[in-house]
Amino acid sequence: MNNYQNAVSKMTNYRWTICAMLFFATTVNYLDRQVLSLTWKDFIAPEFHWTDAHYGDITAIFSLVYAVANLFAGRFIDWMGTKKGYLWAIFVWSMGACLHAVCGWATEHVVGIHDAAEMIAATGAVATTIAITSVYFFIAARIVLSIGEAGNFPAAIKVTAEYFPKKDRAFATSIFNAGSTVGALVAPVTIPSLARYFQSLGIGNGWEMAFIVIGVLGFVWMGVWVFAYKKPENNPHVNAAELAYINLDKQAEQNEKPQDTANQKEERKMSLWECLKYPQSWAVAVGKFMTDGVWWFFLFWTPAYISDVYGFSSDSGTAQLLIFVLYAITMLSIYGGKLPTIIINKTGMNPYAARMRAMFIFALFPLLALFAQPLGEYSYWFPIIIIGIAGAAHQSWSANIYSVGSDMFPKSAVATIIGLGGMAGGIGAYLINKCSGMLFTYAAGTTMVDGQEVEMTKALLAQGAEYVQPAMHFMGFEGKPAGYFIIFCVCAVSYLIGWCIMKILVPKYKPIVLD
Fold this sequence. Notes:
mainly alpha
C-alpha cells in the first residue's frame, strides 16, 4: 500500500481549496472579458457610432494580442512561478478592465467634445472621427486586458499539475474551467443592469462604472491568493497523506526508474524551440486553433445576435434570461472532465487514449449548430439551447485538451505548452472575430444617411430607407441572419476537423522523455 492509502482517512483536501481559487480567478477573468460584449450594442455603440465592423476589429485585436501574449505568458509563469506569476497576471488584466472606463473621456478630450450627449448627437465626419478615435482607445485598453488575461490558463494548468495527479487533472480542470461559464452566466444578469443603474444616477453613460466594478474584483482575489497559495510540499494545510496522493505519478516513476534519474528529468527545463520539435506540441496547438475561436465567437457575439436577429437589447429581461439559460446549459461541461476518468476506470486505457475518445464524443455535439439558425425561425429558444450545448461541449473539450498537454510534458514545461496552445487558440479567435464583424456588416447591406453610406438597420428599413448595397442572401436567409448562419456552419465542423488532425499528429500516448 502506498502512503496515501495508509492514511486516507486522515488525508486533507486542500488541493480542492486551491482548485476553488482557480475557479474564482477564471470567473473574474471572463467577467472582465464580457463587460464589453454586453454593453457595446446598447450603451457604447450609440455614443461612439460603432458598427459591427468596429466591434469586430476591437475583439479581433484583443484575440490577436491575447494569442501572442499567451506564448510569452507561459514562459513567464514557468520562470516566475505560479504564485507571483498569477499575481502579476491578474493585476495587469484588472488594470486593463478599469482602463476601459476612461476611453469615453479620452475620446471627448481628443475630438474636442464636451459630453456623451454631444457625441451621440454628432453626424457626418464628426461621427466618423468619434468612432475611429474611440476604437483606438478601446483597442489600447483591450491590449492591456489581453496581456494580463493570457496568464490565467497557463498559471491555472501549472497549479493543477502541481496539486493533482494525472488521473484527476481533467476533472479539476473542468471545475476551474467552469469559472469561464459561471463568469459568462453571471455577466448578462449583472453587467447590463449595473450599466443601466449607474446611467440612471447620471454617472457617465453607465457603462464606465460597470468596467470599474467588475475590474475591482481581481484586486480582491489577489489579496486572498497571497495567503492561500504555497507549493504542496511547503503548504502547512497539506498533510503527508495528501502530499503522497498528489505525488502518485512521481512515486510510480520512481518505482520504475532510479530516483536520481527521475529527479533530473523533473528539474530539466525545456526551451520553446525544443517544445516545437514535438508533434505533441502541435497537436495541442491545432486543437486549440480549430476550436477556441468558436467559444470566443459565442462569448462575444451572442448578445449582439439576440439583438440583431430577435430585437432584444442586452439589458432587457428576455435577453438576460436567454443568455443565462445558455450558460446554465454550458455548466454541464463539469461532467465532461469526469468522462475520461470513467473511461480509464472501466477500460484501463492510458490517459491520452481516454481523453481522445472523450474529445471525439464532445466533437459531435457542435454539429447541432448547423440547425441553430433554421430552427431559430420557429423560436429563439432553439438557437440558444443549441449554442448552450455546443458551449458545454467546448468547455469539456477544452478541459481535456489542457490535460493532454500536462499529461505528455514535464511540469517545468506545462505552462509553456499551454501558452503555445493559447496563442494558437487566440489566432483562431482573431480570425473568426475579424471575419464575423466584416461579414455581418456586409450581410446587413448599406444605405445613405446624411450623405454617408452606413449599415442598414431594422430601424432605418422601417423608416423607408433604400439599399445602396443589398443585403446578403444565403440558404434562404437574408441580411445578418444569413451571416450568422455561415459562421454557425463553420463552428459546427471545427471540432471534428481539429480532432482528426490531433489524432494524425499523435496517434498514441507518447509522453516526452528528456535526455
